[in-house]
Design a protein that fits this description.
The chain has 14 helices and 24 strands. With 438 residues, it is an alpha+beta fold. Strands 12, 15, 18, 20, 23 and 24 form a six-stranded antiparallel beta sheet that branches. It has a five-stranded parallel beta sheet with strand order 3-2-1-4-5, sandwiched between helices. α1 runs parallel beside α11 and α3 packs parallel to α5. Bound molecules: adenosine monophosphate (AMP) and glycine (GLY).
């Protein structure tokens, strides 16, 4: 009997999950519960249902009726809303943690406390949590010019303000904190880390993990890492399954921290974390530090990783459920990958919406549709990250050249960062780390 797998979510990350699952030799039947119809996912699946991604009971009822035997949840919002709990409650195993464990992403304070209380304090920047203005000025004085202020809760990347980038003085910082308090919110102030960011995502079964190659995302909207923060404009991974600016010990440290976090989550909550464990790290002069944790695949990191997967992703997800992962559970091609996102003109602050565009001339391997609708057979961008293009190659330069070539063939009012994965940008990253380590 054919396996039946439910995917919750309908963006480019979920399209990449669907594409990798459909390469499985088990030929699973795929079902999609999305906030819209992703035309790319529709072509790969047996049925699609449009509804709220937060509606656990309806999702569970639909999946049970279909006889689904495995579910995977793409985005963070349904994890925070307890969609995983609802599916488990009707007997469907889920790749994607339950609500209690998803606090790893939804609450910055939960995660900082977890690290502090379970022997992972060395990976934490200095931080303090506030729910009033008491002590804020003194802590800012202690940190000087190196501080970051984070609203507690899921803010889609918009809840973080970094000194020097978004806040130019302690006065501006205090005003922002007042605003957060006024809105009834708690926040964390922490030391600003100096270094290079990378993502290390691990398949996690609770006690067992399988690490994926590290990936570097690019959060800023414009070339040269300028402009507002976004969900991520593009990302790359290297053929040696490290990154050019990382040392061997950086990578080892990050893997160890993910393992420690999985263990800490069990000790803290009594439950096993089953899903993708995403460490957002900063490589610094004094080792690897945790910036944040996410409870899911990164977007666009997922598009890189799942384009490179050459083993059976259904089997890997089963190993997550059975807590039977090891280093060989997921096999990645020894190739470099570059992902570039085409986004609407005006993104992220005032994106165009409802515009037609064409991907007819783009090679389809590694092409994932994001915020896209289809009207009378024509693709229409709905106003967020629109198309992710992933190319692979023996070197980063080759992968980058191919990705750039393909993405330029998209026709429509979209733009992308030409610098993602280029030699020049990567040389800057490497030089930056060398300077910091000297
Ligand atoms: P987060 O939502 O925690 O990932 O923060 C968004 C972005 O803010 C990160 O990708 C970093 O670029 C930056 N950031 C967050 N925390 C820090 C920190 N402690 N030091 C430096 N940059 C940070
Ligand atoms: N690429 C960053 C994220 O998915 O949060």
């Amino acid at each position: 009997m054919s396996r039946k797998i439910l995917i919750v979510g309908s963006g480019a990350r979920e399209h990449a999950i669907a594409a990798a699952l459909s390469r499985s030799p088990q030929y699973p039947m795929l079902y999609v519960w999305g906030s819209g119809v992703n035309p790319g996912m529709r072509d790969l699946s047996t049925a699609t249902r449009v509804g709220s991604l937060l509606d656990g009971p309806s999702i569970a009822q639909w999946a049970r009726g279909l006889g689904v035997d495995l579910a995977v949840i793409g985005p963070e919002a349904p994890l925070e809303a307890g969609v995983s709990d609802a599916l488990w409650a009707v007997g469907i195993p889920v790749v994607g943690p339950k609500k209690t464990l998803a606090r790893l992403e939804s609450s910055k304070a939960f995660t900082r406390d977890l690290l502090m209380n379970h022997g992972i304090a060395h990976a934490c920047p200095k931080f303090r949590r506030f729910d009033s203005m008491e002590g804020v000025a003194a802590f800012l004085a202690e940190l000087g010019d190196l501080y970051v202020i984070k609203a507690d809760g899921l803010m889609g990347g918009k809840g973080v303000k970094v000194a020097g980038d978004h806040l130019q003085s302690h006065q501006e910082a205090l005003d922002w904190c007042e605003e957060l308090i006024g809105a009834g919110g708690a926040f964390v102030i922490e030391e600003k880390l100096i270094g290079e960011e990378f993502s290390l995502i691990s398949f996690c079964g609770g006690r067992t993990l399988c690490h994926t190659p590290p990936v570097q995302d690019h959060k800023r909207a414009f070339e040269g890492d300028t402009g507002p923060n976004t969900g991520g404009m593009g990302s790359y991974s290297d053929a040696d399954h490290s990154l050019p600016f990382l040392s061997r010990s950086d990578l080892e440290e990050a893997r160890t921290i993910n393992e420690q976090v999985a263990d800490a989550l069990h000790r803290e909550t009594g439950e096993y974390y089953k899903g993708m464990l995403y460490g957002g790290f900063m490589a610094t002069a004094s080792g690897v530090k945790v910036i944040e944790y996410n409870a899911r695949f990164g977007d666009p990191e997922c598009e890189n990783l799942l384009t490179l997967v050459e083993s059976d992703l259904v089997a890997a997800f089963d190993a997550v459920i059975d807590d039977a992962l090891d280093a060989r559970s997921v096999v990645f091609r020894r190739q470099a990958s570059v992902c570039k996102y085409a986004v609407p003109e005006g993104y992220p602050d005032r994106p165009m919406k409802g515009f037609p565009f064409s991907i007819d001339r783009v090679r389809s391997e590694g092409l994932y549709l994001g915020a896209v609708d289809i009207k009378d057979g024509v693709l229409v961008g709905t106003g967020s990250r629109t198309v992710a293009v992933v190319s692979t190659g023996d070197t980063l330069a080759e992968a980058e050249a191919k990705a750039e070539h393909e993405i330029c063939k998209i026709e429509g009012p979209l733009f992308h960062r030409k610098d993602v994965g280029t030699d020049a940008l990567i040389a800057r990253r490497v030089a930056h780390m060398r300077e910091l380590r000297a």
